[in-house]
């Protein structure tokens, strides 16, 4: 059996879980270039290393695509599955133990497919993904309609920003838009000098948000990630910071963020709360729910 096939079996043969066990986490930002893809890839890697089954999907076809970041070549993507030109089994790329890349497309292209028959066949196809514990989605930046569809369909929305004033303004605008569709929003402040700086920036955003948006909003800091030139170098060299440079400060910060996400999922399970799961996620995304 080929390695690709055996690694996919590891996903499909996972104890048949009830539908709805997958937590879908959308990682987004108001402004581009703040580290969304870097954080998505590393958080997914750490969760997988902790033993969760993790899928990572790119809905942001920018410069640093996830396939480039993971140094794999995606021949076909989710659009081919929507067009019935490929199956999920054919497009999914095993990356590491417990970690699979689901090559995406620009969100606009994906959302063109809302026909009920197509969606229903696609959801059947997506069945094998129900065995994932997490689906991490790297969305595009900005408050466009397509990105909002992804955020609405996800269980968790994480807004990433950096200390730059323009990025903070855009992150706030993003939080305001997301607050119309979600009461809970998580934030990561990336490229900070210290955790203290991250907390200060978050407090400023939170104060303005609570004053202008209202108390229904639960805005929480998922964590801050310190800046380190090795992170940018690692992206160029196509290595994951949390795998190859685990002793640098940002790697530790990302570990803490992944742990918080893992703990959150386990708490929800203990409380008996179901995630929405892959089927419902795609139905919501494609306008069928
Ligand atoms: N903590 C950090 N310290 C230093 N550099 C970082 C850090 N996080 C990200 N970077 C660098 O910032 C740049 C932008 O990161 P990335 O491509 O992940 O951003 P993005 O938000 O996904 O961008 P886009 O909107 O273009 O998709 C990259 O060169 C990356 O290596």
TrEMBL record:
Organism: Hydrogenimonas cancrithermarum
InterPro entries in the cross-refs: FlhG (IPR033875), MinD_FleN (IPR025501), P-loop_NTPase (IPR027417), ParA/MinD_ATPase (IPR050625), YlxH/NBP35 (IPR033756)
Coiled coil: none
Gene3D superfamilies: P-loop containing nucleotide triphosphate hydrolases (3.40.50.300)
CDD domains registered for this protein in UniProt: FlhG-like
Superkingdom assignment: Bacteria
Record's keyword terms, sorted: ATP-binding, Nucleotide-binding
Entries under Pfam families matching the protein: ParA
Lineage, uppermost ranks: Bacteria, Pseudomonadati, Campylobacterota, Epsilonproteobacteria, Campylobacterales
Protein name according to UniProt: Site-determining protein
């Amino acid at each position: 059996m080929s390695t690709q096939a055996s690694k996919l079996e590891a996903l499909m043969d996972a104890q048949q879980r009830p539908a709805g066990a997958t937590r879908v986490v959308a990682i987004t930002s108001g402004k581009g270039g703040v580290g969304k893809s870097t954080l998505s890839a590393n958080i997914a890697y750490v969760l997988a290393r902790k033993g969760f089954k993790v899928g990572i999907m790119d809905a942001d076809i920018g410069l640093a695509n996830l396939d480039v970041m993971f140094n794999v070549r995606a021949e076909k993507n989710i659009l081919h599955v929507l067009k019935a030109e490929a199956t999920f089994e054919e497009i999914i790329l095993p990356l590491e133990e417990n970690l699979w890349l689901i090559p995406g497309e620009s969100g606009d292209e994906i959302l063109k497919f809302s026909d009920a028959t197509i969606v229903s066949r696609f959801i059947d196809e997506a069945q094998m993904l129900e065995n994932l514990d997490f689906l991490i989605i790297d969305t595009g930046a900005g408050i466009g309609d397509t990105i909002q569809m992804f955020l609405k369909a996800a269980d968790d929305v994480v807004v990433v920003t950096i200390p730059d004033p323009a990025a903070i303004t855009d992150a706030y605008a993003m939080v305001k838009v997301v607050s119309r569709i979600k009461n809970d929003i998580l934030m990561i402040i990336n490229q900070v000098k210290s955790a203290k700086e991250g907390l200060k920036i978050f407090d400023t955003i939170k104060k303005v948000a609570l004053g202008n948006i209202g108390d229904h909003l639960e805005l929480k800091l998922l964590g801050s990630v310190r800046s380190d030139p090795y992170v940018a170098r690692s992206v160029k060299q196509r290595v994951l910071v949390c795998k190859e440079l685990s002793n640098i400060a940002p790697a530790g910060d990302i570990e803490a963020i992944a742990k918080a996400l893992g703990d959150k999922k386990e708490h929800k399970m203990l409380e008996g709360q179901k995630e929405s799961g892959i089927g419902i996620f795609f139905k919501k995304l494609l306008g069928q729910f």
